């Protein structure tokens, strides 16, 4: 009986304790929620709301759900989280130790808003900053924060003054925590970019007092397109995109940039900066740095390799500024005068700090290389566009060391539309005034430079091949250099009349500078030093003097050569002027001779290769049509009533005419039109230009074939489909390929010219002439110069 009473009392006591515990927990939880929301301002200076709370004073477990911390004096959320939970070590409170052995923040969303120097948590920092120094306690409080964790976090950053918006998501952070008597804290982290393009994972050790850090991280295709927002703040326009890969370790001190000591692999991929998404100024497929050791403070710069794959660069010159200055302001002043925080400028400053001691250090790069580059230059300041590009470009240098023997660099490229270039450089890494350079540029058509020749002389060339080679030896700044310029078979074409073109007596000039074999060939040595070089023109002067006295004696020879060249040219090629859709009198004579040859040789067949310089043809078309539209508006005329003289007046009008430019500006409201050509296309429309271009080709074919309507020519004349190419001589043309039989006059002229090319004075350059002819026959690659 006594036992049963004891059991009963025990059950009652246990039940009472359990009920008490439950009541305490049930009551304490809402009390905790109430107290947090009531005293939030006193705790952090901000309003806080929670949806639910659970507090267990016996186990020390606390959990708040649906947390929201608001902006200062605002209903806008600063931080929101699904839940915040922690375990307090209750027993350690008896020993004046405050310890949270597990702290977990789940699904937080943090909104950081900055406006220049003002950040939306400055008030919190100020709230916790003591107004006056606190008295030092005899024994500090022992606070331990252990096993801290953030899961599935999101971070949103907004810079209102630029403006910039950036975010990261799926942020996970974990740490073993921080003890009151410890200085360092280890952290593991991983997160994705806000658009899910790329992620970063890593670990870090931070010294809280010493500002020391140790970092190891892996970056996987991380999207850097957010930098475009900072680019816009430094420029008038622009697009940017890139991704980054990295696998590296680093140590250092947050207070000293030079203290960084890192090694690893860093890669930038798919890098693009330009006018629009489809119009790049600078891009590359991949930039890779494999760092063996980078420690600026100890002057150690050791790289296994630095390589750039498929770089692209475009530089364009306009009537006003260039494409880079259009983007960043004249002289880059928009970026140069920038005084606020901008991540692009900060990255530049950081790289500058890292590299400032590079040439004073024991640097080493095992391999420095650039592969498959494409560099383009366009000049729109002339009466027509000048375009040239170097592609593919290769640059290679091995074993670059400050204490090494001379370092050898190789640069090689193809030149579009034609030509090649090679440069070999050997430089003393200890003294940049000691170097050797060997260079060779060849197979470059001089017709490529016709836009400049037309503007400054009024006379283009219709043939000629340029070569430039040299050898430089520089020791202690003293130069011993050999340079040679050769232009083979230059020939002046008829004058181009235009208001803006200057006029020089080019026939007279070339008479004096061209040698008897129809070659301009000069050697120009250079001596002196790099600061005051001396150019020696003795060879030029002597050759000119020789031409003055010797050429009159060889006039008959020169006339004979020119006659043979014209016969061959006339019998093989029908050249079309820009916008020409009819046959000139000399062309009609050629067609008549061709028709007679076919009639006299019933088995003879002629195929016509149609080589069309479409880019240049369309440029001439759109410029003419825009000038015509301006002329009609200015004089209130109708196109159908224009006379031939008025059409010639339109043709000769300068595209730089101020009234014409004003007309274009008034009638083309599109942004980012920097060239007359672009404005003309905007005015006329690409569809209309293409329509007129197709009609031009059709008219030419009709004019040519009108001489072969006789049934006896059926199937014996065939015009092949158009080949879109930049011709070696700079003109669209019909090239006649005779099958089996050749006209007697052509055969004799070719035989006699071959004989002359095999004898002095033309023998010396026979091989180069043969190379040029093969280039003309083969045509060039399709135009890639945009």
What's the short story on this structure?
By secondary structure, the protein is an alpha+beta fold.
Overview of the molecule:
The protein is α+β, with helices and mostly antiparallel strands. It has a domain of 196 residues. Helix content is 31%, strand content 40%. The strands form 2 sheets. The protein has a 27-stranded mixed sheet that branches. Helix 13 packs across helix 17. The chain is elongated. The C terminus is likely disordered.
Q: From the alpha-carbon coordinates, what is the Rg to the nearest angstrom?
A: 39 Å
**Overall morphology:** elongated
Q: Tell me the helix content.
A: 25-40%
Structural class by sheet pairing and helices:
alpha+beta
Fraction in beta strands: 35-45%
Architecture blueprint of SSEs:
Blueprint: H1 2-38, H2 40-44, E1 48-49, E2 52-56, E3 61-70, E4 77-88, E5 97-106, E6 109-115, E7 118-119, H3 122-128, E8 142-159, E9 164-178, E10 184-193, E11 199-207, E12 212-223, H4 227-234, E13 239-253, E14 256-276, E15 279-295, E16 300-309, E17 312-317, H5 323-328, H6 333-336, H7 343-355, E18 364-379, E19 386-401, E20 407-416, E21 420-428, E22 431-445, H8 450-457, E23 461-475, E24 478-492, H9 506-513, E25 519-523, E26 526-529, E27 532-535, H10 538-550, H11 555-572, E28 573-576, H12 585-600, E29 605-612, H13 614-635, H14 644-652, H15 658-667, H16 676-684, H17 686-705, E30 717-719, E31 723-724, E32 732-739, H18 744-757, H19 766-778
Parallel strand pairs: 5-8, 6-8, 16-18, 17-18, 29-30, 29-31
Antiparallel strand pairs: 1-3, 2-3, 3-4, 4-5, 4-6, 6-7, 8-9, 9-10, 10-11, 11-12, 12-13, 13-14, 14-15, 15-16, 15-17, 18-19, 19-20, 20-21, 21-22, 22-23, 23-24, 24-25, 24-26, 26-27, 28-32, 29-32
Helix pairs in contact: 11-18, 13-16, 13-17, 15-16
């Amino acid at each position: 009986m006594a036992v049963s009473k004891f059991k009963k009392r025990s059950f009652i006591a246990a039940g009472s304790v359990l009920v008490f515990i439950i009541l305490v927990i049930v009551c304490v939880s809402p009390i905790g929620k109430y107290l947090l929301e009531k005293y939030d301002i006193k705790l952090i200076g901000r309003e806080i709301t929670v949806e639910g709370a659970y507090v267990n004073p016996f186990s020390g477990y606390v959990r708040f759900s649906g947390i929201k911390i608001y902006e200062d004096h605002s209903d806008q959320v600063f931080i929101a989280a699904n839940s915040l939970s922690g375990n307090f070590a209750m027993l350690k409170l008896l020993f004046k130790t405050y310890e949270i052995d597990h702290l977990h923040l789940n699904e937080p969303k943090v909104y950081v808003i900055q406006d220049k120097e003002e950040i939306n948590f400055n008030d919190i920092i100020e709230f916790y900053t003591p107004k006056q120094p606190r008295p030092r306690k005899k024994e500090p409080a022992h606070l331990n924060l252990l096993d801290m964790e953030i899961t599935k976090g999101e971070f949103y950053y907004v810079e209102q003054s630029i403006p910039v918006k950036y975010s990261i998501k799926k942020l996970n952070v974990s740490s073993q925590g921080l003890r009151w008597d410890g200085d360092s804290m280890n952290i593991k982290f991983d997160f994705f970019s806000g658009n899910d393009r790329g992620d970063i994972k890593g670990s870090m050790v931070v010294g809280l007092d010493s500002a020391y850090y140790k970092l190891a991280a892996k970056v996987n295709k991380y999207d850097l397109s957010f930098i475009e927002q900072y680019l816009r703040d430094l420029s008038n326009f622009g697009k940017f995109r890139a991704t980054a890969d990295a696998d590296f370790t680093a140590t250092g001190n947050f207070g000293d940039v030079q203290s960084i000591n890192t090694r690893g692999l860093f890669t930038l991929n798919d890098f693009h900066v330009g006018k629009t998404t489809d119009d790049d100024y600078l891009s590359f497929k991949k930039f890779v740095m494999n760092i063996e050791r980078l420690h600026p403070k100890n002057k150690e710069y050791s790289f296994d390799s630095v390589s750039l794959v498929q770089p692209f660069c475009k530089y364009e010159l306009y009537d006003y500024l260039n494409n880079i200055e259009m983007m960043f302001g004249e002289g880059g002043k928009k970026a140069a005068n920038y005084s606020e925080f901008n991540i692009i400028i900060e990255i530049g400053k950081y790289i500058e700090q890292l590299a400032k001691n590079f040439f004073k250090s024991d640097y080493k790069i095992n391999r420095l290389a650039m592969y498959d580059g494409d560099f383009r230059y366009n000049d729109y300041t002339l009466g027509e566009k000048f375009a040239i590009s170097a592609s593919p470009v290769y640059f290679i240098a091995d074993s670059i060391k400050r204490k090494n023997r001379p370092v050898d660099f190789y640069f090689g490229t193809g030149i579009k539309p034609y030509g090649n270039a090679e440069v070999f450089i050997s430089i003393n890494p200890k003294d940049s005034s000691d170097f050797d350079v060997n260079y060779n540029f060849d197979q470059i058509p001089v017709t490529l430079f016709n836009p400049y020749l037309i503007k400054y002389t009024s006379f283009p060339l219709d043939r000629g091949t340029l070569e430039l080679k040299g050898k430089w030896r520089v020791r202690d700044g003293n130069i011993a250099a050999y340079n040679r310029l050769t232009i083979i078979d230059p020939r002046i074409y008829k004058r181009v009349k235009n208001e803006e073109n200057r006029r020089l007596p080019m026939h007279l000039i070339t008479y004096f500078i061209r040698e008897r074999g129809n070659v301009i060939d000069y050697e120009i040595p250079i001596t002196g030093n790099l600061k005051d070089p001396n150019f020696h023109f003795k060879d030029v002067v002597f050759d000119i003097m020789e031409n003055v006295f010797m050429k009159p004696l060889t006039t008959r020879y020169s006339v004979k050569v020119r006659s043979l060249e014209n016969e061959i040219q006339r019998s093989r090629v029908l050249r079309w002027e820009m916008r020409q859709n009819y046959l000139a009198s000399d062309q009609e004579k050629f067609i008549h001779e061709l028709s007679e040859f076919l009639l006299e040789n019933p088995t003879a067949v002629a195929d016509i290769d149609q080589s069309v310089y479409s880019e240049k043809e369309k440029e001439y078309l759109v410029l003419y049509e825009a000038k015509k539209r301006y002329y009609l508006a200015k004089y209130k005329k109708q196109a159908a009533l224009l006379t031939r003289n008025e059409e010639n007046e339109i043709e000769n009008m300068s595209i730089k005419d101020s009234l014409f430019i004003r007309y274009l500006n008034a009638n083309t409201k599109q942004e980012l039109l920097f060239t007359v050509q672009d404005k003309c296309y905007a005015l006329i429309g690409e569809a209309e230009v293409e329509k007129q271009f197709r009609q031009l080709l059709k008219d030419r074919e009709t004019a040519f074939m009108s001489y072969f309507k006789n049934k006896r020519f059926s199937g014996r004349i065939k015009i092949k489909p158009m080949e879109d190419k930049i011709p070696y001589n700079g003109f669209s043309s019909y090239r006649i390929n005779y099958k089996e039989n050749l006209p007697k006059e052509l055969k004799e002229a070719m035989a006699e010219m071959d004989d002359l090319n095999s004898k002095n004075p033309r023998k010396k350059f026979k091989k180069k002439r043969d190379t040029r002819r093969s280039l003309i026959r083969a045509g060039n690659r399709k135009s890639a110069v945009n």
